[in-house]
Specification:
The chain is an alpha/beta fold. It has helices spanning about 25-35, 45-50, 75-80, 85-95, 110-120, 135-150, 165-170, 210-225, 250-260, 330-345, 350-370, 400-410, 435-455, and strands at about 55-60, 60-65, 70, 125-130, 155-160, 190, 230-235, 265-270, 290-295, 305-310, 375-380, 385-390, 415, 420-425. Helix 5 runs parallel beside helix 10 (about 330-345), helix 11 (about 350-370) runs parallel beside helix 13 (about 435-455) and helix 12 (about 400-410) packs across helix 13. Bound molecules: pyridoxal-5'-phosphate. Pyridoxal-5'-phosphate binds next to helix 6.
């Protein structure tokens, strides 16, 4: 196992970073933010809770307009897996931008090299591809392939999964708003999925009982659907849901169920692929090959490029779904994705991601032992979570603590993302060991301060 990697371009001197020179959000941040938000509306909770204005990023460090330097513990929004402005990716995009920006879906040499590379690295016979410009549009295209390949139209998906914000994505996911209304599009069904920390069905010894979930799906297919299910669509690990891990026997059993019932398995790896969990696909942790898989976020390390990959048998279905789009597979996008994949190979970043996950889990386990509000800690590669609870026995979520810990750690110089009572961390996989530990120290401190503020002992 690789234990230390210090790519010189991204080395962080912990004597200098984080460096908070003006309490953030500082006056210049406030000025830019005020001007921008007169016109730019609909901000995420992440920005509303900590409205800084970022100016630049390099490796694992982000700088705001007041000159504060932060450690990036979320890779933007799970996107810059190789760090901000990785020289190889930046150079590849610049070269492509100076040569040919768009050729619709005509073949280009760079697109050819990318599909050949994907066919080489992805497991099984996942060797049919189409490219898009967001995770959501890839998920939409995946649904069209599901329908075209099976001739069926119903979809099964899981509570608390997230698949984007188009109507199809929203119909699969947990997102709810006045705009989308309380119901999803016709033919979309949601079922519970196993969560190791919060099992719905358990065996006599208290451990999670995967078979009961599978049995429930069988019954639901018979009684809750019209018998026209095209696919089961899931995240391998819930990202937005809070880095929620399935038990190891879940996906092998689900694969068998799908095969038995003639349903395709579509896995949404927009957030989890490309070294995020220490593999090209997270599903490789369980040796399961999906029929359809979506790739995004870290796929282009910040350049908007996403992908739908399908198995050999379903390749021809792309022909009947009117698959192309204006920006999908443009030369800059393909250059970014290819350079990102080559960097993961050259710098052994899948191995590095696994190593960082193990290191983080050890450190977070100590936090769980020491803090009364830390109910659970988990990590698979560089996808990590800490669940904050009112009481470790009842596991009642402590939402207010999530916000406080987020804000307190941000003020110390940790740029990251909030999510209710579950702290979600997704550092760049190029992060050095001591930097990762420093980030976790900052969270540890922020949890301690939050406990004191909310009146918890410890
Ligand atoms: C699993 C998953 N699918 C789809 C999406 C939507 O991707 P995008 O925001 O690029 O449209 C996301 C975004 O967070 C995601 O996590």
């Amino acid at each position: 196992m690789l234990t230390e990697a210090k790519p010189s371009w991204a080395h962080v001197d912990l004597d200098k970073v984080p460096n908070i020179v003006v309490p953030p959000p500082g006056p210049k941040s406030g000025d830019w933010h005020g001007r921008c938000t007169q016109y730019f509306k609909g901000l995420s909770g992440q920005v509303k809770l900590f409205p800084v204005t970022f100016e630049s990023g390099h490796g694992c460090v982000l700088r705001d307009v007041d000159g504060n330097d932060y450690l990036d513990f979320s890779s933007g929004i799970y996107v810059t897996t190789l760090g901000h402005c990785h020289p190889k990716v930046t150079e590849a995009i610049q070269r492509a931008a100076g040569q040919l920006m768009n050729a619709h879906d005509f073949t280009t040499p760079i697109k050819t090299k990318l599909v050949e590379k994907l066919a080489e690295i992805l497991p099984g016979d996942l060797n049919g591809f189409q490219f898009y410009d967001s995770g959501t549009t890839a998920v939409e295209a995946g649904q069209r392939v599901l329908r075209a390949a099976t001739g069926q139209h119903e979809m099964l998906s899981c509570f608390y999964d997230y698949h984007g914000k188009t109507y199809g994505g929203v119909s699969l996911g947990h997102i709810r708003s006045k705009v989308y209304g309380p119901t999803r599009a016709p033919g979309f069904h949601m079922v519970p999925r196993p969560d190791v920390y919060r099992p719905m069905w358990t065996k006599a010894d208290g451990s999670i009982d995967t078979d009961q979930y599978i049995q429930f799906y069988e019954e639901y297919l018979d009684k809750g659907t019209a018998g026209q299910v095209a696919g089961f669509v899931l995240e391998p690990i819930q990202g937005w849901g809070g880095s929620v891990m399935p038990p190891d026997d879940f996906f092998p059993k689900l694969r068998k169920l799908c095969d038995k019932r003639g349903i395709l398995l579509m896995i949404d790896e927009v957030l989890t692929s490309m070294a995020r969990t220490g593999k090209w696909l997270c599903m490789e942790h369980w040796d399961v090959v999906p029929d359809i898989v979506t790739l995004g976020k870290g796929f282009g390390n910040g350049f908007p490029v996403t992908c739908v990959a399908v198995r050999e048998t379903y390749k021809e279905s792309f022909e009947s779904i009117s698959a192309s789009s204006s920006y999908g597979g443009n030369p800059m996008a393909c250059a970014a994705a290819l350079a990102s994949i080559e960097t993961i190979e050259e710098e052994q970043l899948n191995e590095r991601s696994l190593h960082l996950g193990e290191l983080a889990l050890k450190r977070m386990t100590k936090m769980k032992e020491e803090h009364p509000i830390v109910g659970d800690v988990r990590a698979k590669g560089c996808l990590m979570g800490i669940e904050l609870v009112k009481d470790k026995a009842t596991k009642e979520p402590l939402n207010r603590a999530g916000e406080l810990v987020y804000q307190k750690a941000f003020a110390k110089g940790l740029a990251w993302i909030p999510a209710g009572h579950i702290l979600r961390m997704s550092p760049p996989v190029i992060m050095e060991d001591d930097v990762l530990l420093k980030c976790l120290d900052m969270i540890d401190e922020a949890i301690g301060e939050t406990e004191r503020e909310l009146g918890y002992g410890g």
